[in-house]
């Protein structure tokens, strides 16, 4: 991997959107809750929903950055990205939990 390729990958994962910190917390809470409903979860509570949503947004943003410009999206695109990443996160967590039992 060249230095330019490594820099490009890091730049994709560190792009920012027009949504502020409070916006990320609100979107994270919504995305975590919606992802829990999509994955038929029992509910995680507000704080864990926020964490799932924010981590999911990072995952979704990183994955989508290979296909679209994620930094130009607003609230709705950020919410979609966070939901997509949160569903992927919960799916992976479910696989790990099933393999441990």
From TrEMBL:
Keyword terms, alphabetized: Cell membrane, Membrane, Transmembrane, Transmembrane helix
Entries under Pfam families matching the protein: Transgly_assoc (PF04226)
Membrane topology: Multi-pass membrane protein
Chief location of this protein within or outside the cell: membrane
Localization terms from the record: Cell membrane
Record GO cellular component, one term: plasma membrane
Annotated TM spans: 21-39, 46-68, 74-96
UniProt KW Cell membrane keyword: yes
Annotated family: Belongs to the UPF0410 family.
Protein name: GlsB/YeaQ/YmgE family stress response membrane protein
């Amino acid at each position: 991997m060249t230095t330019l390729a490594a820099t490009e990958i890091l730049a994709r994962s560190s792009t920012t959107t027009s949504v502020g910190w409070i916006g990320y917390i609100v979107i994270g809470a919504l995305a975590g809750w919606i992802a829990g409903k999509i994955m038929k979860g029992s509910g995680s509570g507000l704080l864990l929903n926020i964490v799932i949503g924010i981590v999911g947004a990072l995952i979704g943003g990183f994955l989508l950055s290979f296909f679209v410009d994620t930094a130009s999206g607003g609230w709705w695109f950020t919410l979609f990205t966070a939901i997509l990443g949160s569903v992927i996160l919960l799916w992976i967590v479910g696989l790990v939990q099933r393999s441990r039992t």
